[in-house]
Amino acid sequence: MGSGEAAAALGGRLTVLYEDDRLVAVDKPPGLLSVPAPGKEGRSLEEIMGVLTREMGIPYRLLPCHRLDRETSGVILFGKGRAPRDAMADLFRRREVRKTYLAFVQGRPARDEGVFTRALEGRPARTEYRVRERRGLYSIVEARPVTGRTNQIRLHFKAAGHPLVGETRFAFRKDFSLSAGRLMLHAAEIGFRDPWTGEDRLIVSGLPRDMERFLVNNP
Asked: Exactly one of 20, 21, 27, 69 is catalytic; which is it?
């Protein structure tokens, strides 16, 4: 497994943020499923990566170690084959992967930082957050989900009275004067202790263009 093969295969189509002999991290664009869904063949990041690597004659499959929502952009990690994927997926299950998201939330949270612990799906859930900046109608927030419940960040901020900008599933667009073309949520960082080498890894994705434009247009 060459450490540059995947980057060569994906070049020009997807941005590779990190690659070694076992793992590849790419920058997922918004609006793309992480994994296949019924009736949507060929429209997921996993399928696109599979096509590109097969075209290059790469002998392994790239398998996702975790998922991001369709509207969420940012870092997503793939294993080069089943064994690396399973090893990293186990780190995620044991909560040994540090995930940091950037979110634009409606309004201005009163506290500069805090923790949400509201249970979701009848199970404990914990999200730590820090306000980076408060603007006129919204705030820029770092969110770190300690647990991994479905839609955890979205539901916790909604329950706190500060749904994400662009939210249409858990909040009514008409209730807020500020809107966006998609959910303003970006997976900015993933950090973990490499299970093979013991080295600390930090994989970073810069803010995508649509969120940068939103900041410029909404000072």
From this structure: 69
